[in-house]
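Why does residue order matter? Because the sequence determines the fold. Keep that principle in mind as you read this record.
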Amino acid sequence: MAQQEYDVIVIGGGITGAGVARDCSMRGLKTLLLERQNLADGATGRNHGMLHSGARYAVTDAESAEECIKENMILRRIAHHCVEEHDGLFISLPEDDLNYQQKFVESCRKAGIRADILDPEEAKRLEPAVNPAIVGAVRVPDGSVDPFRLTLSNVADAINRGADVLKFHEVIGLIIVNGRVLGVKARNNLTGEVKEIRARITVNAAGIWGCLIAKMAGININMFPAKGSLLVFGHRVNNMLINRCRKPANADILVPGDAICVIGTTSDRVPIESVDDMRVTPEEVNILLTEGAKLAPALATTRILRAYAGVRPLVASDDDPTGRSISRGIVCLDHEERDGMAGMITITGGKLMTYRLMAEIATDKVCEKLGVEAICETASTPLPGSESEAPVAKDGPYMYLFNVESGRHGCRQPHIERDSDGDRALVCECEEVSVGEVKYAVEHQGVNNLIQLRQCTRVGMGTCQGGLCAMRAACLIGKLKGNICEAQKDLHKFLQERWKGMMPVGWGQTLSEAQMSAEIFQGLCGLKDKNFN
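Structure:
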């Protein structure tokens, strides 16, 4: 690989980089995607999974709102196995300015977003979990999307079309000759090996870390690292997405997804040096709980599974300490035009919702520089799993398991082995993950460890947070990969990641369960380490 030259190297294995890799490969370009950790390891895997209608930005950022609603409708067509369509409510509480509702509705409709004013009683009938004190409600076409599934589907399609993907490869330098980027120096974070890989164009799609990549070429990108913290609750309180009908603020979105719901987010500027180790503070937990209960009072008595935080890749334009007023618009920088450094472009800003459009803009620029005439077809070409409707199980045994697998894998569900009792046996009861599904993930989706398995199947994301299923899953992966010796190390790392999310909410049932898990894995199974406590 070090001796071959690519047309394009894409830096960053989040949703934007995955989308760029897919688009480039679809246009016939020899493409390499580099990610320093697991795919979707940054902001892509640390958001609330909202399928934005754009309504949230209709008043404050009309351009982003229009982009969101257009991409919303595209994703419903090309990635329906990643999307749940349940609509959303924007609610007004007694302390909110009800006059804002009319401005909100007018702005939505101007941006092309359906916005229907509902009687509060009708809203409570549609969504019983909503705060009964509401004085106003608007229904919009919001939904939820699985960011892991979406990223992996884009990467799978890129690979199917000839792209190469290197995970755990970190860019530590750029190859620059006579004012032109000719490729990258990448370190294998598993082995320490360093290699040079060359390409005609390098696309910087590293999110908030993109400013550090640019700095390797002596280029400054004024990024605004905006930390957002979120809480995951133990069951699905609401079936429609619930927003506050006001200007964006802390803890004003409650998103249902799969069997849980997520409240978010906060927004605070953080130093760029801290973005690799985001921790949720007690103050943030208190804000999320207090404000979240105003959306759905049941949250006050619902068990919290975990807390997590991500960093939005905003491009700074003012001194707003929260970043709330910064546009969520797309920023594409041609460094030859902007900085006199040929051979590299940066694509940043935007949102999970607009990743496909971001990829189209970046790939258009790549093709322009390479003299390639090829149109973008990502808006009309379904992702793997959404080529056709998912099969529906007929009444009978294991019907629920069949439908859960179809929800995760779409029309590719029939490829999962389920003929024997062994294949149908459950590895994870909380998320209904079978042995057959784990086999499929390892053999066909490139899964090598528990974190990657979690992204594909949701193993460990349920109520027990891996306490009852992680060991089975680690053992099964070890057997399938023929490397049982790595299973214990993998299991330890996975449990540490689960504990990091449980620690900020470590009281009551959550603390009891963490103590029980520690007894199981340290006491009974001998998984002891000074860092695991």
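The longest helix spans residues 62-78.
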